[in-house]
Amino acid sequence: MYRCPEQIYGELYYDLHNSGLWKDGKKIADAIPRVSPEQILENYQVQRVEKAFDLKSFFKTHFKSKKKKHSTKKGVDKTCDQYISSYWDTLSQQNKTVTEGCSLMSLPYSYVVPGGRFNEMQYWGSYFTLLGLRDHGKWGLIKNMIDNLSFMVDKNGHIPSGNRTYYLSRSQPPFYSLMVKMLSEKLGPTIISHYLPQMIKEYNYWMSGSNDVLVGATQRVVKINNYMANRYYDNLTTPRMEMYRSDLKLAESLDQNSDTLFQNIRAACESGWNFSSRWFSNYRDMNTIDTCNVVPIDLNCLLYNLEKTIAEAYQNNGDDDNCTLYSHKAEHRKAMINELMWDDDDEYYFDYHHKSQSLNGCITAAGMYPLFLNIATQDQADACAETVQYFLMKTGGIVTTTNNTGEQWDAPNGWAPLQWIVIQGLRNYGHNDLAFELTRRWLSLCENVYNDTGKLYEKYNVEDIKSKPTSGDYPLQEGFGWTNGVYVALKNQFR
């Protein structure tokens, strides 16, 4: 049974966070004990009452941090692609065993971390990292990472946001089936059936609570008319353990029930978009965060793909009944997406607010998931391409949303995963010239920043390419797994 740091260290853990001595609470949550937790707690009770007690010194004496996975050298002696190729080893690690009292969970195989503060295997970011590993021929590492995700879903009943104990209450956008399909490019289509049990477990996690008599929402399922849709969610209503103090400070500043606020914050973290005006009833006001009442376009498109992939696996197994069952589920979800989440007036896909029974009206890059996963009609795709070109295309690529709010998943920021989603969606429907131009702009931005700094980053300012992106929940991180992966994959398409 896993125990989180707050369960292990109790009062000490909260005292560390509440001290305000650390700008980033993840440093506390990820700390590795130098001695047993029991010894740390015993020492704390004895030393804390001493007149000269220094909490920061106590922390440094009893805990250490894992070395960050990034470079320190300024300047460039390699091309961007050469740098990434040599950098995979820096970002790779393996932890079959972990130190007692540490939040890191062991995994059986090696994996690539994003970099910076993210010194663990992250779920949805791994897909975009795998794109680069694929084009660099690292199929063994790709299979290892998929098998790690399989291990986590077998052990926990779902794939957590990452292999940290404090991530166990939530998942992330379900890209697992897309990773399995990627592996089939190398090992053949029958490999999909090998991962069928894990895909079923992931599907059951997202659909838990679904039944014919459901009214409204439960867990991650939302009943809308005759449709079963999905939302991001978290079972806990407490501050995030890795951002404990900042969440408490936010609750003090906002006029919202704290349990509701914390659950909406956690649900936004499950989306990977923490934070964005997508989740606000009033896009300018974090006080109106309402994630749990939003039916997101990206999540439902990804679950459509999961249903399609499960159907394909059953077809490979000769199980026609289950193949038909999941094919029907997929078609039903596709109908829901096109009926409820497509706006005929604005000619684009939007998130759906199930309480108000209306679209949220915020143009986001997430609206391109139906093109990425081949859900849109050609006419819808043509209209989406125009919307992208007019509203989302900027000097450095695709902006996350049209709203400039100070949140990191809003303007002026652009993120590698969304460049890939949009560009591949355009390519799927024949909009190759626009896809080519967006690729050129993004690669140029990444290369220019790399040439100036010798580094690749988690996100970029795509509107003012000479300026840094909005920081949001934490400072700008270098590394960076998904930026590296998308750069390599787009560069190969661009050639």
What does this entry look like structurally?
The protein has 495 residues and is mainly alpha-helical. The protein has two domains: 60 residues, no CATH class; 415 residues, Alpha/alpha barrel (Glycosyltransferase). Strands 5-6-7 form a three-stranded antiparallel beta sheet. The longest helix has 22 residues. The chain is globular and about 75 Å long. The mean pLDDT is 96.
DSSP, total strands: 16
The separation of the N and C termini measures 49 Å
- Label the CATH architecture of the largest domain: Alpha/alpha barrel
Q: What is the CA-atom radius of gyration, in angstroms?
A: 22 Å
Secondary structure: helix percent: 40-55%
Report the major sheet: 3 strands, antiparallel
How much strand content do the residues show? 5-15%
Question: Can you list the strand order of the major beta sheet?
Answer: 5-6-7
Structural class, by secondary structure, is mainly alpha
* Separate helix tally: 20
CATH domain fold name of the largest domain? Glycosyltransferase
Low-confidence stretches: none
Calculate the mean pLDDT score and round it: 96
The total number of structural domains is 2
Identify the overall geometry: globular
**So what's the CATH class of the largest domain?**
Mainly Alpha
